[in-house]
Fold each of these.
Amino acid sequence: MYTQVADRVHRLTNGIANFYLIEEAGKLVLVDAGTPKDWAMFGQAVQALGHRVEDLDAVLLTHAHADHTGFAEQARTTAGARVWVHEADEEMARTGKAAASNEAGVTSYLLKGQLYKTFWVLARGGATKIIPIRELSTFGDGETIDVPGQPRVLHAPGHTAGSAVLLVPGRSALFAGDVLCTHNPLTGRIGPQIMPSGLNRDTQQAMRSLDNLSGVKADALLAGHGDPWTGGVGEAIRLAKAAGPS
Ligand SMILES: [Zn+2]
Ligand SMILES: [Zn+2]
């Protein structure tokens, strides 16, 4: 149901999209919020960790895609958690409407079996569209977010305009969202790489944004899709550049 991936950091997954629970001084912070139906999995993990849902202080969204905004609105209304997103993705999270269409459709991936598995899991979880989040707090590049764990924001646009990674230095954990993944949700390829072009607003920008992460030190790179990467951030960037767009 959940696995510890760094000091008091737990990975939850629906098999396609990951989200992460950070424990800090009796409080909880979520990085991303899975699909809407992952609310139940979240509740079970909270209970198993000896917490209550009301301990949830904040939901930090790496970007405003439906497989990451998931149950954020429910967490806000039920647990009273504040929901945070980069200012450039705020409108998409608030309205549920995509700001711009992706550069490539997904039709070129139709021969890949992984595509069907991804869409099946996300549809079953209710993540075919964003559930609008009525009240949002925003963060910008370089900011330290004033929530337990004090995550620092690095803006890395391309996958969406407001895509960001969050560094929690005290845990040596980098939450990469969809800036870097280790499992391609359309092709099934494993290893550090940017997201497939069919899901990106601007793939060339996503590739350039990898440089925004250079110099970051973290033992665990925790992606939105795929297993944790522990081979260093610099090596992940090098491999993602070598892999190129997909
Ligand atoms: Zn995404
Ligand atoms: Zn995603």
Amino acid sequence: MSATTAAVEFDADSSRVRLDANLEAEIAGYFSARCGGIDAGESDIHEGLRFLAERGLVGASELPTQAATVRSVAASCMSSAFALWAQVMVITYLDRAESAELRARASLLRDGTLAGSTAMAGAFQDADGFRPLDVTYRRDGDDLIIDGVIRWASNLRPDGFIMVLGARDTDGNRVIVAVPSDADGLTVRPFLDLLALGGTASSSLELSDVRVPASWIVTESFDTFVDSVRPTFLLLQSAFCLGLVDAALASVATHIDRAYDGFRDEYAALLSELDELSGRHSRLLTSAPAKRDLIEIRLGGAALAQAAVALESRVVGGAGYLANSPTARRLREAAFLPIQSPTEGHLRWQLAALAS
Ligand SMILES: Cc1cc2nc3c(=O)[nH]c(=O)nc-3n(C[C@H](O)[C@H](O)[C@H](O)COP(=O)(O)OP(=O)(O)OC[C@H]3O[C@@H](n4cnc5c(N)ncnc54)[C@H](O)[C@@H]3O)c2cc1C
């Protein structure tokens, strides 16, 4: 199949931008069949990225198309949607890099040849004034020498990835750099068992005297760069929150007839909240959003996902408590949303700071 970018349209019934119905069905079929194996860490999550790449859906030029894809994948497999988010973010960083060499490498991520790892939690925390970066750099001629520990990063594919991260020098200057997985001094620590997202190749890394040539510096205009990628970062995270809500509420719909009647009001309230958030999300995808709107949609999406999976669990009952049931998987996946950077604490702190 050739890599053409799929068009999206606004669906007034669900207040959201959607991919073509046939493509959505194809995505649902593909990822539903593989999600159990990915969740168990037994299947290769990157095959899904290649499946999407063949359809022009990895690093699509239009943000609404990319968001509709992330949401659609998340409704079947949250781990795959998270991997897609990471891949798209690294493409977004490389597309904006000042170095032509880095911009050229984005095509290797668009076609799924290389994985993209966004180790940018620290950069966002630093840019927002929440917590300073603890990865450091010093200059050696035109090169930078990087040291420190990345506590978490994903898409650490053993056969190759490009990681993008921020670093600070002793004078407080900050840069964003890209590092290939085979760089001398870069060590990926062993993968550990996780509550969910165990198939996302997530771990921590050490950087010890890692040499970054000038051509691998993404930018030295740190704050401007973080601000420029923030809408994509947060709106795609919100998309996978909403995809999880779609799946949980679809499951409620199939079980509600045999459940306690009192759950119907709660179900109706969550559907209405989903409609409202979807409408806001769709508008933000096609505008120049304010920081506050981005924070609110990300916080709202995570909270709604947690409420939706909690209702799903009560409505489905004991069958949802089987460890490998989709309901149990979604409960575990939703627990990730408030601790994914920007964490709920970070976002709430930011909202309070904007208000004062
Ligand atoms: C499976 C998995 C995959 C991940 N993948 C990635 C990835 O690909 N890329 C990436 O960048 N990150 C990734 N992360 C990290 C994630 O985005 C968060 O940064 C991380 O989960 C936060 O946990 P922490 O232990 O670092 O907590 P901390 O950041 O230390 O936070 C713990 C608590 O303290 C609060 N806190 C921290 N600092 C302050 C402060 N200065 N003032 C007030 N409160 C504060 C936080 O809000 C939070 O409530 C991943 C995490 C997991 C679990």
